[in-house]
Inverse folding.
C-alpha cells in the first residue's frame, strides 16, 4: 500500500509539473503573439544584464589566471632543469661550487613558494567568488518561470471575471425549454447551482493568482537586493586579486634577483681564476680590420711634396804651400721624384735618401753591382738633382760627383720577393700555415677557412696592398686539385693561423 501511495504521489507530481510546463508554454506563445500582456521590470532586466557581464568577466579572469599558474609551473620546471645542468657541468675544483648548489636549492624553493601563494591568495579566492554565480543564475531562471505562472494565473482570473457578467445574464434569463420542463421551484435551484459553480471557479483562480504572485514577489525582492550588491562587489574583488598577484610577483623577483646576482658573482670569480691560468682562455679570436683595397688595381704614385737632401762635404785640394784650409763647402741637392712610375717599380721610390761625403781627391766610386733580372726588366726612376752651392770661404769651385743610388729588392715577411718559387708550389710561395679557427670571408677577395686547413702563403703582387695582420695565399687542396692560382688565391687574417712549415 505504501508503494502504491508513493507511486500515486509521484505520478501526481509528474502530472502537475507537466501541466505547469504546458501552461507556461501556452502563456509564452500568447505573449509572443500579442494576445496576452507580459509583466515587465526594466530595473531588474538591467540587473540581469550586469550579472551576465560580471559572470563573463569573472570566468575569463579565472581562465587566464589558471593559464598564468600553468606558465609559472612550466617556468619552474625549466629553471630547475637549468640549475641542475649547471650543477652537473660545474667541476668540483672550480671555486664557488657550494655556493652554486645553495643557489640552485633556493631557486627551487622560491618557485615553489611563489606558485603555492598564487594558488592560495588568487586562484582559491577566484573560485570562491565565482562559486556564488551558479546559484544566483538558477534563481534568476526560476524567477522567470514564476513570473510566467503569475501572468498565466492573472490572465485566467481576469477571464473568469469577464465571464461572470455573461453568466449572470444567462442565469437571469433561463432557456425556455428549462422553464417549461422544470417546475417553478426547480428553476431557482438550477440558478443557485450555476452561481455557486461560477463563484467556486473564480475563487480558485483568485487563490492561484495570490499564491503565484506571492512566490514571484518573494524571489523578485531577494534578487532585487542581491544582484546590485553582487555587481558592486566586483571592484573590490578585482583590486584584491591583482594586488595579491602584483605583491607576490614583486617579492618573488626581488628574491630571485638576489640569487641571480650571487650566481653572477660566482661566474665572475670563475672567470677571473681561469683568466689567471690562461689570459686568452675567454678571448675570442678576431681579425684585424682591412682597408680592402683592390688587389688587382694598378698603383699610381702621386707627386710628393717632401724633398730628400744630399749633403756633400767637399774639401778643396790643399795648396802647395801651407796646411789645408779648415773651411768646408756644403752643397744641398734637392731630389724630386717623377710624377708617375709603373707599379712594378714602386719599391724604388720609397728607398731612403742617401747622404755621401766625398773629397775631391778621393777616387771615383766603383761601378754599381750587376742588376738582377727584375731590375733589368724594369726601368729605374732616376731623381733629378738641383745643386745650390754656398761657399763660406773663397775657394776654387769643383764639380759635384754623381750620387750613388742603391736599389734594394722588396721583401715580404723577411723573404726576397724575387726568390724563385719552389717546385710544385704557386708563384711567390713563402711557407705553409694551418688554420686554428674557422673564418668566414667578408669580401670576395678573402678565403673561407676551416680549422685544420693548410694554406700556402705567397707574396703580394704589390707589397703596398698588404694590410697589417693579413696574408696572401691559396688553400693547399685548391692548389693540388686545380693548379689555378689566380682563380683560387685570396687574403686571410694571420692570427687565425699558425705557421706549419
Amino acid at each position: 500500500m505504501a508503494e502504491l501511495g508513493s507511486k500515486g504521489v509521484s505520478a501526481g507530481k509528474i502530472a502537475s509539473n507537466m501541466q505547469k510546463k504546458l501552461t507556461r508554454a501556452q502563456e509564452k506563445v500568447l505573449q509572443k503573439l500579442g494576445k496576452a500582456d507580459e509583466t515587465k521590470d526594466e530595473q531588474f532586466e538591467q540587473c540581469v544584464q550586469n550579472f551576465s557581464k560580471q559572470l563573463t568577466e569573472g570566468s575569463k579572469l579565472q581562465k587566464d589566471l589558471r593559464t598564468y599558474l600553468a606558465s609559472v609551473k612550466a617556468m619552474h620546471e625549466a629553471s630547475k632543469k637549468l640549475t641542475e645542468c649547471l650543477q652537473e657541468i660545474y667541476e668540483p675544483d672550480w671555486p664557488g661550487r657550494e655556493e652554486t648548489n645553495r643557489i640552485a636549492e633556493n631557486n627551487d624553493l622560491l618557485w615553489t613558494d611563489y606558485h603555492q601563494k598564487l594558488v592560495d591568495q588568487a586562484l582559491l579566492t577566484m573560485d570562491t567568488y565565482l562559486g556564488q554565480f551558479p546559484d544566483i543564475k538558477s534563481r534568476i531562471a526560476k524567477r522567470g518561470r514564476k513570473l510566467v505562472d503569475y501572468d498565466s494565473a492573472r490572465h485566467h482570473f481576469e477571464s473568469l471575471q469577464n465571464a461572470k457578467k455573461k453568466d449572470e445574464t444567462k442565469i437571469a434569463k433561463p432557456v425556455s425549454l428549462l422553464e417549461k420542463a422544470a417546475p417553478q421551484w426547480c428553476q431557482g435551484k438550477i440558478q443557485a447551482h450555476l452561481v455557486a459553480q461560477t463563484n467556486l471557479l473564480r475563487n480558485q483562480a483568485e487563490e492561484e493568482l495570490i499564491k503565484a504572485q506571492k512566490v514571484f514577489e518573494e524571489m523578485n525582492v531577494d534578487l532585487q537586493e542581491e544582484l546590485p550588491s553582487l555587481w558592486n562587489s566586483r571592484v573590490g574583488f578585482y583590486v584584491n586579486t591583482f594586488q595579491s598577484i602584483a605583491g607576490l610577483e614583486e617579492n618573488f623577483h626581488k628574491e630571485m634577483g638576489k640569487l641571480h646576482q650571487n650566481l653572477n658573482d660566482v661566474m665572475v670569480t670563475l672567470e677571473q681564476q681561469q683568466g689567471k691560468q690562461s689570459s686568452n682562455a675567454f678571448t675570442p679570436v678576431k681579425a684585424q680590420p682591412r682597408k680592402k683595397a683592390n688587389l688587382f688595381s694598378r698603383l699610381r704614385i702621386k707627386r710628393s711634396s717632401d724633398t730628400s737632401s744630399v749633403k756633400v762635404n767637399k774639401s778643396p785640394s790643399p795648396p802647395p804651400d801651407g796646411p789645408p784650409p779648415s773651411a768646408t763647402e756644403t752643397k744641398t741637392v734637392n731630389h724630386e721624384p717623377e710624377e708617375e712610375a709603373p707599379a712594378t717599380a714602386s719599391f724604388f721610390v720609397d728607398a731612403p735618401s742617401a747622404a755621401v761625403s766625398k773629397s775631391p781627391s778621393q777616387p771615383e766610386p766603383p761601378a754599381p753591382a750587376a742588376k738582377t733580372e727584375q731590375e733589368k726588366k724594369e726601368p729605374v726612376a732616376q731623381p733629378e738633382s738641383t745643386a745650390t752651392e754656398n761657399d763660406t770661404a773663397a775657394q776654387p769651385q769643383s764639380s759635384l760627383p754623381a750620387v750613388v743610388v742603391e736599389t734594394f729588392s722588396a721583401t715580404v715577411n723577411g723573404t726576397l720577393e724575387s726568390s724563385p718559387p719552389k717546385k710544385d708550389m704557386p708563384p711567390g710561395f713563402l711557407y705553409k700555415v694551418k688554420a686554428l679557427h674557422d673564418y668566414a670571408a667578408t669580401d670576395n677577395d678573402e678565403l673561407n677557412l676551416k680549422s685544420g686547413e693548410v694554406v700556402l702563403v705567397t707574396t703580394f703582387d704589390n707589397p703596398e696592398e698588404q694590410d697589417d695582420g693579413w696574408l696572401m695565399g691559396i688553400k693547399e687542396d685548391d692548389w693540388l686539385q686545380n693548379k689555378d692560382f689566380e682563380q683560387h688565391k685570396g687574403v686571410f687574417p694571420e692570427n687565425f693561423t699558425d705557421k706549419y712549415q
Observations:
- The longest strand covers residues 329-336.
- Residues 413-499 form a domain with the SH3 type barrels. fold (CATH 2.30.30.40).
